[in-house]
Structures are given as structure tokens and as C-alpha cells.
């Protein structure tokens, strides 16, 4: 029984090698790749990110609607992971293809199209996968355990996708070739991880097909549930903070922390080590936050980690240029310990929120809720990256023009803007998340009451639902 449970947890967690890894490749490396290899200005990078989110506004809820109405031998969700797995490889290769058109406009169009393809494939994987997380177990603590495995896989993949892609690219004299090899290598890894979950994860909860017709009213119906809106709010600010910090991280390290080294044309691994330590500490912290959830609740764990993240981020304003790398390593490790809490908690909340939705709507709207969740995830990433790219562009950040001498330094104004954003973004956004968490009502007792009300099927859940809306 124990071995079976472990196999199930590993099979379920596998797909988040793609989820966490692709998140980090896009947020840490993609803006740097576009600016310094393809030669696109930060303002146009912001444009690409925002257009892609308009596309997601259509595809994400649609995919949730489709998966809720799917019937197959592999269930509602896993069939899409199996189908999408080969396209994961293709889309990541196109994402990091170094388009070298002479006209900047053509490069922007090519990048936009490749990014739209990638986000569409990502949608076809992550929305069913989010839904699967609420169906994998019906037990409150068991869900937390499943999702801790998932987050562990995600963070481990994040470490790989911060450190290894740069190493792969650096193996080639021509960075353009290096990015293509990196895209194929990680695309294959991601495709296999998604396929493994699709074939071998086994959901515990099996629900009938949702029969409601496709309409805007039906797709936005989950938003009428207050705990779902609160969950989305806490998830959105988390993802936006992470996207902002990761999108600026390598710019900050290259042109500020190792300023003199970069100006001399020398490459280093300070950024890779600091990022790896940050994500490694997130894995180390997971057992701590699981115990905290069991003893004090999910919202307490969310707030504890958020406060630690906020405090450590503020120290960025105190670090001088060319600081001893040990300072950055220490800061990254402590910050990673803090990020682990709010990073874990929304994943463990999702199944509880879906249960509350089933009590309210009499249908289990996993797909529609995961559609909004994935959309919010992408909106947060895109808005975070778009806003900061636009701001550093206004502050004078210089992109690499293909064929021109390498950019070895950045204006002081641009670097000041980067430091201000990295220091205060967690304070602003995670502060909002902390306030939302105080109003979230689903704890272990409430979740047990919800499960019993659903099982009884006698419709005595009105008072329980009213207590969640306070």
C-alpha cells in the first residue's frame, strides 16, 4: 500500500517538471534571450507578453470547459497530457529559436507567434493537470502530501532550468546554436514528464461529465464562489511577485552584483549558484511548511513565508555593486525558504476550493476552475514581466543589437530601477496576499464538513456555504 501510494505521488508530480521548469525558463531566461540574443527591446518584449495574455483569455477557459466534458479511457484530464506531450518538445524549440531577420519588426512577429504556440501547448497541459490535483485524493492532508511532492518536483526542475540551460548554451561558441540545443534537450525532458503523468497517475475522484453548454456565463460561474476568488487572489500575487523577481534576476546579477566582471567581458556563475540555492532551500523548507500546515493551518504558513520573503527582498536595496557573492548566496537561500510557504499553500488549497464549488454548484467544475487558475498564472507572469520590461526600458536599459558589439554595462538609472522593483514588488504584492489570507475560511474542519455534506447529498450545505462567504 505504501509503495503504491509513493508510485502514485511520483506519477502525479512528474508533470510539474514541465510546469515549474517551463515557468523558470520563461521567466529567468526568456527576457534575457530576447533582449541579448534576438535583439528585441524591452518595450516590445512587454508587447509580446501582453498579446499572449489576450490569447490566453480565450484558450484557458475554453480548455477547462472542454476537459470537464471529456470522456475517455484515461479520464477527463490525463488524455490531454498524453496528446500534448510531443507538442511540448516542438513548442519549446520554437520558443528559443534565435530568429535573425534583419528587420526588427519581423523578429517581433516571429517571437510573438512562437510564444503563442508555446502558451497554447502549455494551456493544453496545465489546465487538465490543475484539475487532476483536486481529483487525485479526497483527503485534506493527503492532498497536501500529493502537492508537496508536486512542488518538490517543480522546484527541482526549477533549479535545473536556472542553472543547466545557461551551461548548455555556454558549451557552444555560437550562442544561437546553444539555445536551439537547449530547447530540444529540455523540450524532450518536459515532454516525457508530461507523458508519464498522463499514462500512470490515477485519480481517486471520478466525476460525471458536466453537461452545461459553453457560454461566458457558465465559464465565469466559479467566480461567484468567494473562497475561489480568494484563492485566485493569493495565487495571482504570488505568481506576479515570482515572475518579477525571476525576470530581473540575471540582469541584476550580470550588470550589478558582478558589474566589474561583466564590464571586463568575463562570464561567471554567481547568478546560477544563487538561483540554485534559492530553489534548493524551497525544497528543504517543504517539510517545515507541511508540519506548519498540520499544526497552524494553510493561511498561517502562507503568511509566515510571505513575511520572510518581504523582509529579505528589502535587503536588495542595501547590497552594493560588486558585493562578495557570499552575501547574494545567503540572501537567495533565506529568500527561498520564505518563498516555499506561499509557493506550496495555493496548490494545497485548490482541491478544498473545488470541493466548496461542488457543494455550491452541484457539479465538480475542476476544469473551469483550473482554466481560471492557469489563466491567472499566465496573467500574473505576463503582467509582471511586461510591466518591469517596460519600466527598465523607460529607465534606459540597452538591448543587444544583432551584429553589434556586446553590451557589457547598463546605465545607472536602469540598474536603480531594477533594484527598486526587486526590493519592493514582494512587499506590495505579497502584502495584498497576506490581507486576503486573513479572510479565507476553509480549514481542515471546514473541509471535512464540506466533504460530509457532499457525500450525504441532502442539500444541508447552505449554512456551511454561508460561513465561507463571511
| Number of helices, where a helix is a run of at least 4 consecutive DSSP H or I residues | 17
CATH second-level architecture: Up-down Bundle
Termini distance? Answer: 41 Å
CATH topology assignment = Growth Hormone, Chain: A
**Average of per-residue pLDDT values:** 84
Q: Into which percentage range does the β-strand content fall? A: under 5%
Q: What is the succession of H and E elements?
A: HHHHHHHHHHHHHHHHH
* Helix/strand class: mainly alpha
At the fourth CATH level, what is the homologous superfamily?
Answer: MFS general substrate transporter like domains
What is the CATH C level class, in words?
Mainly Alpha
Task: Outline the structure in words.
The chain has 470 residues and is an all-alpha fold. The chain has one domain (7-202, 218-468): MFS general substrate transporter like domains (Growth Hormone, Chain: A, Up-down Bundle). The chain is built from 17 helices and no strands. It has helices at residues 2-13, 16-38, 42-68, 78-95, 104-135, 140-170, 175-200, 216-219, 226-257, 259-263, 270-296, 298-314, 325-361, 366-394, 412-437, 444-456, 462-468. Helix 2 (16-38) crosses helix 9, helix 3 runs parallel beside helix 5 (104-135) and helix 6 (140-170) runs antiparallel to helix 11 (270-296). The longest helix is centred in the C-terminal third of the chain and has 37 residues, at 325-361. The mean pLDDT is 84.
